[in-house]
Amino acid sequence: xxxxxxxxxxxxxxxxxxxxxxxxxxxxxxxxxxxxxxxxxxxxxxxxxxxxxxxxxxxxxxxxxxxxxxxxxxxxxxxxxxxxxxxxxxxxxxxxxxxxxxxxxxxxxxxxxxxxxxxxxxxxxxxxxxxxxxxxxxxxxxxxxxxxxxxxxxxxxxxxxxxxxxxxxxxxxxxxxxxxxxxxxxxxxxxxxxxxxxxxxxxxxxxxxxxxxxxxxxxxxxxxxxxxxxxxxxxxxxxxxxxxxxxxxxxxxxxxxxxxxxxxxxxxxxxxxxxxxxxxxxxxxxxxxxxxxxxxxxxxxxxxxxxxxxxxxxxxxxxxxxxxxxxxxxxxxxxxxxxxxxxxxxxxxxxxxxxxxxxxxxxxxxxxxxxxxxxxxxxxxxxxxxxxxxxxxxxxxxxxxxxxxxxxxxxxxxxxxxxxxxxxxxxxxxxxxxxxxxxxxxxxxxxxxxxxxxxxxxxxxxxxxxxxxxxxxxxxxxxxxxxxxx
Length: 486
Ligand SMILES: [Zn+2]
Prior knowledge:
- By secondary structure, this protein is an alpha/beta fold.
- α4 (121-142) links the parallel β3 (85-90) and β4 (146-152).
- Helices cover 38% and strands 17% of the residues.
- Bound molecules: zinc ion.
- The site of zinc ion has 4 residues, from loops.
């Protein structure tokens, strides 16, 4: 085993010294539970802490009030090289309909229909900030040079904040980007996410009395229904790993005796590659046009947001997984065991098997309550099904994502169970481990130019050296800048 040039023990102590402040911050963001692009208090709480750590903050970037960059430069010594620019990505947005009391093992909202942290983003940004601060402090002490940036990234859930930021060139100066996700497992895997495009489809018809003069009406609701039927037939003739979902955002009112003059659908089209998503999207648009023709209504559409698939970076993933393994996973805190066992009882065997399979973890992990180890790095893709705007950053710079075990094995994402566990010591421990591993990875990148060159070479190979093309059309502004929708 090679002599570890990074003092992981010292790094561990450095991060642990900040545990009270950062776990309190994660809990505070859990309490705030703010929704996409409205994370004003959560962003403010992060900015205040970063300023207290001596970072220089630029807020309201890319036209988004809650997006920000915090920067701290280390070195260079007289005449020395500037060193790499290392970025940490952090989120803080929650999810609607997931209000839930912490530490309660049954569905019990704080506010009925309210907002909750069902994807652990209270931990994500906070852990990434802690990694940025620890890496900066360690580099400063070692006399190395680097620029450390933390990106406050709003609206990961359903808003693709990073994609809007990427379009404005926010990430272009980075050498690497490092981030993590709260999970039931520890590790760093070759994750395959789906590209997606989210779009509103609107139909305008002609209202009339549904019984008295039905022949005069043209139903926008019929058009929306026919569009859905058309898309449901499309499913048989699209690649099997693509996904199409829809929701009615306007069904034309609540009166069955009025021919519905307006209707609106929100579509989400996903595919393994952004080029496939764009092709599939064109086919969905054609079906919408056909539905309008059949019903003599007018159709228009408006892209809401989009994101690209993740470009994995095995060089960085292997490095991060290695750092995490050497740091070592914490064991289950005894104080949380009874609650974890209660939560476990709310899962079916299928939930647990699916949690294990989705992480590409060994099958016998289904027997364990929590993950107390680190998954060995595995270069075969782990298909996560969902999408993330981290994908867009990964097209621009070599990007790596860690997983930190914050939840009982079997916990599905976007559920009350995830919200309920968000303030547990287990969740804090997962965040702390991820922060240590991310900081260690940054230190590896800063001290080893060959590692950085290898990560960049892999990135070039995987992207074909093509410049990033943002999947959000030029004219689509971030939601906070849009006029109020009728
Ligand atoms: Zn999520």
